[in-house]
Structure formats: structure tokens, C-alpha cells
Amino acid sequence: MTEIKRITCGTVNCYLLESKNKAVLVDTGGAGYEEKVWAACAGKDIRLLILTHGHIDHIQNAAYLAQRASIPIAIHQKDLELIQDQFSQPLASTGIFGRALKIASERKMQKEHIQTFTPEIFLSEGDTLEPFGIQASVLELPGHTEGSIGLDVDGQAVIVGDALMHMLRPGMASIYTDRRKLRESAEKITALGERMVYFGHGTPTTNRDWACKR
Ligand SMILES: [Zn+2]
Ligand SMILES: [Zn+2]
Question: Dihedral of CA 166/175/81/110: which sign?
Fold first, then answer.
């Protein structure tokens, strides 16, 4: 049984997956939240830091936390370039809220600094976290970014990164690099069936039909 602990960092969530005495950290939040995340990790035997994708709000504390916990960093290879250049995958948006979110995100990407780090593990579809003591497998969920991933945890919960967001209401991300792939990823999450869905932004809800037909 894996316990999922949500750590809120302003509007962004990180998650601590715990089983018996082992743990894996998913995402890191943005600058200013590093001590809060580290405090949530205190006393846990953390084995790995997984980044759901390369956007600044999820990776900004990666260097700090990986160093403090002495753990490797894992990401999908397709988001590697995004770590160095936030604009290597241009964003498009849907609706007025999406446009506002895109402007706010790009402003943050332009202004703020990401401390350099080097992922040592590249994750892809079906990879299991068993070597790190956690019953979860990797889901490729491209669309929000090319290398977006999620985690199917214990067959009971799914961490979706930013493929889905729960901001105004839960649904497909309103900013993305590829809308067609994003819709396919949303359908893939729906097809998992009964799960609690844990978002990169917002509170968890139950799984449902996510794919927007527009
Ligand atoms: Zn994102
Ligand atoms: Zn995000």
C-alpha cells in the first residue's frame, strides 16, 4: 500500500509516495518552497526525485532537494532540453483562462532562474518504481509538454502532472505544446478506470471522462 502525501507549494503540488519505510518525491515546487518540501521529506528514506515534466514551477527546487537528500533525479528524455531552455517547447493555449495562464507562465520562465541539475535516470512508459520500494509505474502523457509523464500508483491512484489541471475546474490542461497528444493523454487517463487523480495544480478528484471534444 502506497501512501500519497500532497505537499502544496502555492498553486503547485509535489507528492511524497511512501511505502513501508521507503519514499519517492514527485516534483519540487517553485523557489521559496524548498524548505517546506524538505521538511515534509524529513526522516523519510527518499530514494528518487521524479519530475513529471520540465516546467519551472515543478523543477525549480530540483537541484536543492536532490542534493539535500542525496538522490538521483529522473525525468522523461524528451523534456531534458526544457530544463536548460524553458522556451524550447513553445506553448499554445485554449480560452481566456489559458491565455492568461500562458502569459503568467512565460513571464515566470523569462524572469526566474533554475539552478542547474543533471537528471541521471530517464523514465519511459511502463517503467516501474519497484527498485525504489514503491508500487507504481510510469505513464507517458505527452501534450502539455513532449516529455510529460504520470504515475499509476498501486492501481488506485494516478499522478498526472499537468496533463490535467484542477484550477478553475478539473479538466485538460489549458496550456500545452500539442493539443492532439494532450487529448490522447487525457483519454489514456480516463481509460485507467477507477482512480483518485492527483494533479500538478489543485485538489485531487475522482477519475472521469476528461477529453474535451472541441
Ligand atoms: Zn507545466
Ligand atoms: Zn505546472
Answer: negative
